[in-house]
């Protein structure tokens, strides 16, 4: 199967999930998670019309970012690609990614917020961020506990160069994707509750949730960004 075939298959499943849940297809955007693949495949994805690229480590992302969006990259790709940082981020790595990734999906602590705000202010930019929430409570997962989120968002209001736009979560891997539904539903309800309580100056509109194994369930539960690696771009030895 070519990447275009896989994209077509994902698109059909995504449209069906939107139809089942009475949502419009335009409400959901796809991030191609390219951490498992090399530059050639990322370029192929861009040729298929994919625009949003997700990476979880700068070290792995760097050669691809340079080829596609770096100073020497072909201009048409640089214009097209929008980079999303989706992995856990060390504060001392913020300086590497801040001017290259438009969105950060993994904001989960004050020390990281301070680092993002400081570097963004220096560059004169405002960074749209997702606050990562550990809904499932698994030890291995990053993110705030749901009950800590409101307090965290209120503290974030002090940072002029961070714009919280939504919440992000990762569901546990389940054999039966249906089992992930409560996690996604809880993230949506938390977002709605935070908005009802005006936890942020602007309502949180976005939900970054759903991966290869469970994206249809996430879409049915309100995802606005799905992060697709294996099912879309595959997995290579890189
Ligand atoms: C790797 C990764 C994905 C994509 O994983 P797949 O299961 O291959 O779709 C999505 N989100 C995050 C945070 C990831 O690290």
From TrEMBL:
It holds the Pfam family Ala_racemase_N. Residues 7-235 form the Alanine racemase N-terminal domain. Keywords: Pyridoxal phosphate. CDD domains: PLPDE_III_YBL036c_like. The modification N6-(pyridoxal phosphate)lysine is found at residue 35. It comes from the Bacteria. HAMAP family: PLP_homeostasis (MF_02087). Pyridoxal 5'-phosphate (PLP)-binding protein, which is involved in PLP homeostasis. NCBIfam families: YggS family pyridoxal phosphate-dependent enzyme (TIGR00044). Belongs to the pyridoxal phosphate-binding protein YggS/PROSC family. This is Pyridoxal phosphate homeostasis protein. It comes from Paenibacillus cisolokensis. The gene is ylmE.
């Amino acid at each position: 199967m070519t990447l275009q075939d896989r994209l077509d298959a994902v698109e059909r499943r995504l449209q069906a999930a939107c139809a089942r849940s009475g949502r419009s297809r335009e409400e959901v955007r796809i991030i191609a998670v390219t951490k498992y693949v090399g530059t050639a495949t990322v370029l192929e994805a861009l040729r298929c019309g994919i625009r949003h690229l997700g990476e979880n480590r700068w070290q792995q992302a760097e050669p691809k970012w340079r080829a596609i969006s770096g100073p020497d990259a072909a201009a048409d790709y640089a214009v097209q690609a929008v980079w999303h940082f989706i992995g856990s981020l060390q504060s001392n790595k913020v300086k590497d990614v801040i001017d290259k990734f438009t969105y950060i999906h993994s904001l989960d602590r004050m020390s990281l917020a301070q680092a993002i705000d400081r570097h963004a202010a220096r560059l004169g930019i405002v960074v749209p961020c997702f606050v990562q929430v550990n809904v499932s409570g698994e030890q291995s997962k990053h993110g705030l506990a749901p009950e800590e989120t409101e307090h965290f968002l209120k503290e974030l209001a002090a940072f002029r160069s961070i714009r919280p736009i939504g919440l992000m979560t990762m569901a546990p891997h389940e054999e039966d994707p249906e089992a992930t539904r409560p996690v996604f539903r809880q993230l949506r309800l938390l977002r709605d509750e935070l908005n009802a309580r005006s936890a942020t100056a602007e309502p949180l509109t976005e939900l970054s949730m759903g991966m290869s194994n469970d994206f249809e369930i996430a879409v049915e539960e309100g995802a606005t960004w799905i992060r697709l690696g294996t099912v879309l771009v595959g997995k290579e030895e890189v």
